[in-house]
Amino acid sequence: MRNHLRTFMLLAALTALFVGAGYMVGGPTGMGIAFLLALVMNAVSYWNSDKIVLRMYGAQEVDPSHPEPIVRNFVADVHEMATRAGMPIPKVYLIDSDQPNAFATGRDPEHAAVAANLGLLRMLDRREIRGVMAHELAHVKNRDTLTMTITATIAGAVSALANFAFFFRGGDDRDRGGMIGAIAVAILAPIAAALVQMAISRTREYAADKAGAEISGDPEALASALQKIEAYARGIPNVQAEHNPATSHMFIINPLSGQGADNLFSTHPATHNRVAALMELKGRNPRSTTVEAPAATAVPTSSGRKAGPWG
Length: 311
Hints:
The chain is of the alpha+beta class. Helices cover 61% and strands 6% of the residues.
């Protein structure tokens, strides 16, 4: 409940920023036009966000008849956990990328999809993969995919309106702050919108970790997977994510740098904080899901090379 309340308050703050930027562009009329524009943008995102993101990453749908055993197990586990969670079975996609990572998308549980990079299946054991995909199913069940779509859309609209405020604002509108006010809005509004967007993302990650641990029944597996994904992501670039940094908040671990921190400029919580919270859950309910899987792989040693310019 506390996470949902915080998300609502952050969304309200983001909406207020949007309305304020619209007012700076054209007063009450500009505010109204901006609001209508946001409705159109959100409608397009609502109906097509999953298709856009999956196409962006070249994701391919997979099913239980796939010739590779590791992929069949992956799909079967997603189906089994979705059924256990009492939710519709989402479409399952695979992305041809070496970096181990995963995300969920779709406007609601009835039209959802979960996707994993090929590296996830190769570098994690089956138990850890189940933990990761349970986290993504939690995002779907909590309707975080819609929340993050709306957040990204409004944040983008705020940035666009801030640019309009700077370039097209008349110099005689001194009652609303003049050129100095326009410059302030152009600089500060996009930063504020990005900070709010990141705060919402961090809040939803913690909630999905908790709900995912409940779905899989194995918080320790998710904790182990988070540590390994972060270590691998430091040295394995995600080319698609580097070209589309605005989608980085969707992944379970930041695909741009592989480093999370609970600070103003992070889209993800610090991994050690997430692991600590998951292990606390394990301590309160020490049970785990029994899954036959290959032996766990060691957490890799970082080579120090960061993925692209975001490292």
